[in-house]
Amino acid sequence: RILHEGITTSEVEAFINAAHIKVGIPAGSYFCIVLFGEDSAYPHGVKSPKALELNDTVLIDTGCQLHGYNSDITRTYVYGEPSPRQRELWQFEQDSQIAGFEAAQIGATCASVDRAARDVLEAAGFGPGYDVPGLPHRTGHGVGLDIHEWPYLVLNDHTPLAAGMCFSNEPMLCVPGEFGVRHEDHF
Asked: Which end of the chain is more exposed for a tag (fewer CB within 10 A), N or C?
């Protein structure tokens, strides 16, 4: 609701931090990444983030700590009117995340969840493997007392999923020169 053309990433980060404090998190945001336009293609941000322009992709990744546990969520949307390309890549990312959720069954391996999400993006012409444009890093990570906990949803981790484990599911689609899309939820 605060977005407008010309707003900076640091202004949005400050708004999110204040929102965390307002809902009872005294320390505010544990972390916050805000990216606009092409900058959203880089999973962990850029050195000199750009200000918001009309029809930019907006990526926000944030979390806080409550009772010693970490939250971590990412959303991607468009400020303005999404282009056909933005809609197409958003849907590829959504389909990839859904494949990860469907693969996440007790006894399945971390690698199989990553493979399921990655297969969707590869079938759409991205990758292969960890190449960009595509999914250049893990599909997800354990989350709890640490923000990034072992085991990881990555191709070389064959840990079986067990009851009580908590993971992020965030198979980010990165297209340098255009934009990126990441949806992050947990199972």
From this structure: N
Count of domains forming the chain: 1
Residue 168: its pLDDT value, please?
A: 96
Which conformational region is residue 129 in: left (phi greater than 0), alpha (psi within -120 to 50 degrees), or beta? left
In a domain, 133, yes or no: yes
Closest CA to 76 of 5, 181, 168, 172: 181
CATH number at residue 41: 3.90.230.10
Written as six digits, the tokens of 171 are: 């198979």
Residue 106 has, within 13 A of its CA and on its CB side, a CA count of: 3
Instruction: Select from 1, 3, 10, 6 the least CA-distant residue to 51.
Output: 6
For the chain, list residues with pLDDT below 70.
Answer: none
Q: How far, CA to CA in Å, does 154 sit from each of 1, 8, 19, 101, 113?
A: 35, 33, 33, 14, 8
Q: How far apart are CA 36 and CA 142, in angstroms?
A: 27
User: Is the whole-model pTM more than 0.70?
Assistant: yes
Query: What phi, psi does 182 have (nearest 5°)?
Result: -140, 125
Residue 85: strand, helix, or coil: helix
pLDDT tens readout for residues 32-75: 999 999 999 998 889 999 999 999 999 999 999 999 999 999 99
Distance CA 56, CA 77 (A): 9
